[in-house]
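Researcher: Next entry in the queue.
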Amino acid sequence: MSDKNCVLSLDFHREYPRVVSGKGIYMYKEDGTEIIDGASGPVLVSLGHGNEEIADAMKEQATKLAFAHRDDCVTPVLEESCRLIVEASDYDLAKIFQVCGGSEATEMAIKMARRYHIQRGNAGKYKIISRWQSYHGISNGALAVSGFSKRRKGYEPYLPEMGHIQPAYTYRPWIANDENYAINCARALENEIMAQGPDTVAAFIAEPISGMSLCAAVPPEGYFEEIRRICDKYDVLLILDEVMTGMGRTGKMFAYKHFNIVPDIVTMGKSISGGYFPLAAVGITQKVYEGMAEKNGNFPPGFSWSGNPLGAAVNVAVMKYLKKHNLVDNCAKMGDYLKAQLEKKIMHHPIVGDIRGKGLMIGVELVKDKATKESFPMSEQVAFRIQEAALEDENMLIEASQGCNKGQAGDGLVISPAFIINKEQIDDIVDRLDKAISTVEKELGY
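Model: Structure for this entry, 446 residues:
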């Protein structure tokens, strides 16, 4: 971190590149050096940098009405934004509550689940069960239901424990060679509900496709169908965290559409604004809305910027841009191509153990031994060394993570470029990643 400015950066011991502009999937440093953004900044800049249509929509709304408080009024642009999100869910969702970030969305989803049960006369149901190797946000409530050990470390005294179960992680199943892994993995939820007491459990929260904690791990077929059955059986709401996966990134508007289910509550963020405004949202079904509305119920929790017209205007522009340019389909097509090229070009590396994901959210797990799936010690910092080599030697941004192996080991990368990417740019990303991996392999003695 530079002593020449007043920015408190993430890493106190690293000099960050100073980026001054961006266009499409590229960003530019002060000296003109071009950096390819293979991480979408990270995972927000779904429409690329420098999109004038989105910037113009924000400017127009700012000059018309920049702020209106949700306690006092509602704006037509917010109504339109919420309607477009409901339409994008194929009307699975009925009402939308907008906030400024994914952590806020998780906090609101938890409160909505609690309100739903209180209004229906089940005030004893308050616990939110979640999964290990999950991530739902950095605020205390969101971090409490997260299972990302590295990000929880040091803050455990502030995090109430309400129950975590195993993740749906086919590369490292908790029981090897389990022919019924999907069902048995899901039934860990039923066991936890029974152990906690069904009359105390309000909701179960999960990422439909894991984010940075498991680097785009996709659950096995049948897993979420069984989760849905269990939640219904015990009057437990199903919250799906689509902050990273929602708004088209996986090749469908919402990732839950891959799994033949409808959740009760959906959080969304990141791509919802294309990275042009801090925005996130929570969507609820008609069932949840009607439950919250019982006995003259309402929902007072919120943030000052909840339902902000500027954010809504940006979302409207993003939703229209996605449709106009057929970008969700492009995510599916380019995602298939990206995954195929990674399997073709980097799977041969001795430290590449698995390539997974959907759409333009593809994960790479790095291992010390392919045959045994042995992880590198976390002290080796293998994923972060590849991330650094990609930036320093290849002028490319990618995301690195550690802890996918039960939180104690495991290195992974996520490749998540903007929805506007083409095949030639994907080839460039894969070639640069290939070189970065080779650089670190040589350092490791392979």
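Model: The mean pLDDT is 96.
Researcher: Noted, moving on.
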